[in-house]
Amino acid sequence: MIRPTTKDLAKAAGVSRATVDRVLNGREGVKKDTVDRVNQAIKELGFERNLQAANLAKSRQYRFIFALPRSGDQFLDQIVQRIAEAQAVFFADHVWCEVQHIDENDPHSISAYLSALSEKDVAGVAIMSPETPQVRDAIRRLQERGVAALPFISNQTMMDADWVGIDNRAAGATAALLMGQCVGGRKGSVMVISESMQSRDSLERRLGFDDEINDSFPHLHALPSLETYGNEDRALSIIAANLKANPDIVGIYVMASEARKPLSILQSLNVPPSIIKIAHERTPFTEQALRDRRLDGVIAQDPGHLVRSAIRRLKGIVDRRQTLGSQENIRIEILLRTNI
Predict the structure, then answer these.
(1) Of 87, 51, 60, which Cα lies nearest the Cα of 308?
(2) Whole-angstrom Cα distance, residue 166 to residue 332?
(3) Strands 188-194 and 148-151, sheet pairing
(4) Could you tell me if 139 and 114 are in contact, meaning their C-beta atoms sit under 8 angstroms apart?
(5) How far apart, in whole angstroms, are the C-alpha atoms of residue 89 and residue 305?
(6) Runs of H (alpha helix) within 25-106
(7) Confidence category of residue 24, pLDDT binned at 50, 70, 90
(8) What is d(CA 271, CA 170) in angstroms, rounded to the nearest whole number?
(9) Whole-prediction pTM value?
(10) Lowest-pLDDT range, 167-176, 232-241, 311-320?
(11) What secondary structure does DSSP assign to 253-273, as a single string?
(12) pLDDT one-digit tens code per residue, 73-118
């Protein structure tokens, strides 16, 4: 079956090919009823635009920025590596990706950085930042200026439809289910370690964790969250104090995406292997900890899938095309010593 062309579209809508071109490219100067007629013709003819050919003819390029935290550890390193790999994969589509580091603890500087970007500078931005009113508003203003933008890994309220990452509430519930099954019938407390409870992903993971623990494992008691703020000395102090104050601890849940420091501290404190330990994200450290039986399970999301999905979503926004929902669904993975 021959695919309909813009000439067929123009004939069906009763307009010129130049008008069809303006509608397809979202340019101004076309009356609403004319736009409606062209869109109706698109539906009736099953017209699909060859974006790759159109972009080649216009020498169109997509410059995408990944705005990532300045401070980070192995999980962030994995993300940066996957961005470099994706650059090669999407090169034929004229996609260029670069990483810009932001101070995740300074929402005003993040807002200022985003405010300085324009459609002439960049086609889209994927931003990994804790939720704040300043960052959320800056993303909205960026979109209003014609730049595709979406939260990356860390979600922002009111943007649930346009972000890339796992369902963190489900991830927390998964961690609780794994914790409860590994603990078995033992009664006791569960220590919960986070970097900061101001981040939305930590809040949602905690809510999901508590829901599942309370519903399915009434013999377990989840203790108040410990916030390390990424400070190793603070982490050592509060973890040691929590272990001393709660001798009945049977499980430890590390909610933060970077588990290396908390787990290293637990090892230095000689926490017995009988205490079940569940963490997030697959990194060289968590892989080795699983092999060494210092860690019982990891709740993970695929960094490569995250990056590729962000690029496809940004490109879809720029091209005004829907991406395939099933392809962009980031799965929650459970990693054990036996399947890494």
Answers:
(1) 87
(2) 6
(3) unpaired
(4) yes
(5) 13
(6) 32-45, 51-58, 74-89
(7) confident
(8) 28
(9) 0.79
(10) 311-320
(11) EE-SS--HHHHHHHHHTT--T
(12) 899 999 999 999 998 888 878 899 999 999 988 999 999 999 999 8
